[in-house]
Design goal:
The protein has 13 helices and eleven strands. It is α+β, with helices and mostly antiparallel strands and 463 residues long. It has a domain of 87 residues: Transferase Inhibitor Protein From Tn5, Chain A, domain2 (Orthogonal Bundle). The longest helix is centred in the C-terminal third of the chain and has 28 residues.
């Protein structure tokens, strides 16, 4: 037996089968609560045993989906978006073991730092590339400034960029000439000089600036664009910040040019360059709504930004960072609700988080597919259940064209329409989101289980 991605996990058929089963059940049930995931007592025990096995770890769980992501990404230009989220068990941490303090320094928790591949052309989530999941030891960090970069938590940004370069090397080589097929995108926390100084080959970087650095040409970073001529005005879709926020369109004035970053004092090794010449883009919003904070992005990048088109592309690429925020929301309270799990030990929690990360990416893929996707429905559903899903989908269609499934049978878009309808979407108003898709999955899989049971009973009664 192989996993859905066609590779055995560490060559062990049992673990491959159990991993594929667990991932499928988490997506289907829309939860990480194991007595729901298992379906019955036997399934719950099997899930606990898998998570507790010494042979199981985060890397092993992610490996099949990372391989699938790499294959799917080949030949495309990819945004490798990285970020960190915190899992905080405040009020529910008394029985948790092996966990250190969360970000508030008080309640127990751990951290997840994934890299998610996003198609640069249409912003579609392709899948996970890597993930670093860890907990702190509880001891305060001393002499942080004097510690080597390799011994700091922040080294995860460079390690993740290297992982993206390794896993997506075929995509990185897809673009001819000096352009890379992989652009690693990070928020302000990744504004680290050594990330640029030591970046992997054939990978570009795009980071939102956090530090008002001193420049080699004189002056400070935040002021450098003041004297530059505007390249034009660009409309930027500002992503929703969560339920109740519809997002908005911001008009920004674009400025771009080259800067020389100086290596900070005491930073890195003598072999690290003393300065770096990089691209800089400033996107400053004009005519912002009264109650909205004006958008201001200062982006540092290894990408070329000499023309308006190149600067606009950099802004569009950075905007795609919102996809990883959607994955986090789906993993947490707006979807699978990892923080509500009853699993108590650190190792099992981190394994469960890896499974949840995979499932969250798949749910987001369904959300993406609602507007059309050529990918097959078997990416999310077993082939022997497609016909049953078709029968269910037919009962959900109405009389008007708008109430009919517009997509070809057997495509992921076709399946996403069925799931959305079961999740409560009425074909009108706003498109279905992750919560609707998660509800729809639970409903669809319950109905499919009923179909399978009815067929078994029918076979038993046939003479």
């Amino acid at each position: 037996m192989k996993t859905s991605q066609g590779a055995l996990v560490y060559g062990d058929v049992r673990y491959s089968k159990r991993l594929a089963w667990l991932t499928k059940r988490i997506v289907e049930t829309g939860t990480l609560v194991l007595h729901h995931v298992g379906g019955n007592r036997r399934g719950e025990i099997a899930a606990h045993r898998f998570l507790s096995s010494k042979k199981v770890n985060v890397e092993m769980i992610l490996a099949p989906d990372v391989a699938l992501t790499a294959r799917t990404a080949g030949g495309r230009r990819i945004l490798a978006v990285q970020d960190t989220t915190e899992i905080n068990f405040a009020g529910r941490d008394r029985s948790r073991t092996g966990l250190g303090p969360s970000g508030n320094g008080a309640s127990k928790g751990f951290f997840i730092h994934p890299v998610i591949a996003v198609d640069a052309a249409d912003e579609a989530v392709i899948g996970p590339v890597a993930a670093h999941i860890w907990t702190r030891n509880g001891k305060p960090t001393r002499h942080r400034r004097g510690r080597a970069f390799e011994h700091k938590e922040s080294v995860r940004w460079l390690d993740s960029a290297r992982a993206a370069a390794e896993q997506l090397r075929e995509a990185a080589q897809a673009c001819p000439g000096p352009r890379s097929g992989v652009i690693v995108v990070g928020d302000r926390e990744s504004d680290i000089y050594l990330l640029f100084a030591r970046r992997p080959e054939r990978v570009d970087l795009l980071v939102r600036a956090a530090q008002d650095r001193t420049l080699g040409q004189g002056g400070l970073l935040n002021d450098v664009a003041a004297s530059w001529a505007p390249l034009g005005v660009q409309e930027v879709q500002v992503a929703s910040k969560g339920p109740g926020d519809k997002g908005r369109v911001a008009k920004v004035v674009l400025k771009a040019g080259k800067i020389e970053l100086l290596r900070p004092k005491g930073c890195g090794r003598k072999s690290d360059p003393k300065s770096l010449t990089l691209g800089f883009v400033e996107a400053r919003e004009i005519d912002a709504p009264k109650n909205a904070e004006p958008l201001l992005w200062r982006l540092i990048t290894t990408l070329p930004v000499g023309t308006r088109e190149e600067a606009e592309e950099a802004v569009r690429f950075y905007r795609s960072r919102w996809r990883i925020e959607e994955v986090f929301r789906t993993l947490k309270r707006d979807g699978l609700n990892l923080e509500a799990t009853q699993v108590e030990t650190a190792g099992r929690l981190m394994n469960l988080a890896a499974l949840g990360l995979i499932a969250s990416c798949r749910i987001i893929q369904l959300v993406d597919a609602r507007d059309g996707s050529r990918r097959p429905a078997t990416d999310a559903l077993a082939a022997d259940r497609i016909e049953a899903a078709a029968h269910i989908g037919a009962t959900l269609e109405g009389r008007t064209e708008r109430q009919k499934n517009p997509w070809d049978k057997g495509t992921l878009a076709w399946l996403a329409w069925i799931v959305a309808r079961l999740g409560g979407w009425n074909c009108y108003y706003k498109p279905p989101g992750p919560k609707t898709m998660a509800r729809g999955w639970r409903c669809l899989c319950a109905m499919l289980d009923g179909f399978a049971l009815a067929r078994e009973l029918q076979d038993m009664t046939v003479p």
